[in-house]
Amino acid sequence: MPDEKSFHMTPDEFRRHGHAVVDWIADYHSRIESFPVLSQVKPGEIRASLPANPPAQGEPFDALLKDVEKLILPGVTHWQSPNFFAYFPCNASGPGILGDLLSSGLGVQGMLWSTSPASTELETHVLDWLVPMLGLPKKFLSSSTGGGVIQDTASSAALCALLAARERATNYSSNQKGCDGRIVAYASSQTHSSLEKAAMISGIGLRNLRLIEVDDNFAMRPEALARQIEADKLDGLVPCLVCATVGTTSSNAMDPIVEIAKTCRQHSLWLHVDAAMSGTAALCAEFRHLQNGVEFADSYNFNPHKWMFTNFDCNCFWVADRKALIQTLSILPEYLRNQATESGAVIDYRDWHIQLGRRFRSLKLWFVIRHYGVEGLQHHIRRHVQLAQQFADWVRNDARFEVAAPVPLNLVCFRHKGGNAANQTIMDRLNRSGDLFLTHTKLNGKFTLRLCVGQTNTETRHVERAWKRIYEEAANIQNS
Length: 480
Ligand SMILES: Cc1ncc(COP(=O)(O)O)c(C=O)c1O
What we know:
Blueprint: H1 11-30, H2 45-48, H3 61-72, H4 94-106, H5 117-133, E1 147-151, H6 154-169, H7 174-177, E2 183-188, H8 194-201, E3 209-212, H9 222-234, E4 238-245, H10 257-267, E5 270-274, E6 299-302, H11 304-307, E7 315-319, H12 322-329, H13 339-343, H14 362-396, E8 401-403, E9 411-416, H15 420-433, E10 439-443, E11 446-452, H16 460-479
Parallel strand pairs: 2-3, 2-4, 4-5, 5-6
Antiparallel strand pairs: 1-7, 6-7, 8-9, 9-11, 10-11
Helix pairs in contact: 4-14, 5-14, 6-8, 6-12, 9-10, 14-16, 15-16
Bound molecules: pyridoxal-5'-phosphate (PLP).
């Protein structure tokens, strides 16, 4: 049927619309500071503006792009705005976006080496590059006993680490028999909630995840960890993993990895190090001391999608003993069998994570590293840290405010001395104004503001303005 209508976009149409989309993205980034950082829409507002039913006939592409502008943009919180200081960053960059576009253009699914050798080999190569870039131990190299893999998120990395630790501690029997309620894992009370989720999913159970107390700096107390492990062993339980964090989400606390590792070695426990955002700082030699002891880790992960200009999603996860991970997650149905796998000469990344299918994520990471070079990445990390330190100094020098936790890198936890309600009001007013976006945490029961500098295009003037807006709002509450 040669004259049958094709509903597909032709290559020429794709070229034309593709140029328009790239233009739109470039313009969006140029005018991003004109938007309120935190979307100001009310719940349901975006859906109410969309047609109730899908179109029976296809629409011109121009109409789609117009609707992104008109209907979608008001509901976007501008994570890429240089005035975004909330949570942890999720920064993107030109090379990252273009690498992701190419990944979509190639459209490969790299579950096996043979389903796209370049996808697997580039990933292995880039993760090997990152080992010396970040001062990580050689055992994480693919040429050693370990290796790295790109996961979607730090949550998935934590789950994989916990599963492998569970299997190793039970002589690879819990995959077969299930958990018997005796396997326990350890993290600090400040560890990211993804560990709790991992405990739920892995069958270890929330009650068997011990949340160890922290010191005045919100870092895990290693002696409390040692005591808890001893007590659990006396009770006939089976400890399997300790998660240490380099830069907790709440306050950027640094767990003492060297001491924690000692206890792990004594009890043969898997040590997982979660450096989701702060791991990027290890690109700079002067910040590597924050993760002293990483050489003892069984697994380690950080998110280039947080602070290394690689748009979401991209988590780098390394293990010291790849066999333990593969033995935990490998399953080989007949329809996936192939000669390359049988030869044992290749990596099949489907055995290194939860899902089967996988995107060609290493392209964007490769583009970012090649575009910036190590020097460019270090430049921006140092700049962000410097800006945060400058902000912390302004806070310290203003009698109305106090810094609420140590500031090792780019996150400043601070509060107005007027109490919880005052801080909540300051934050709400700032966020409603659209001028910047801040979030909060609670430290020692006190409502605390967090300002994290990590957006790709944040410069001195943005941090200066943030501080100006904060003290203006502080003056407003004092006068009201
Ligand atoms: C220390 C830490 N670990 C894990 C996570 C979870 O990250 P992801 O969204 O990649 O799962 C975060 C997120 O902020 C984090 O700060």
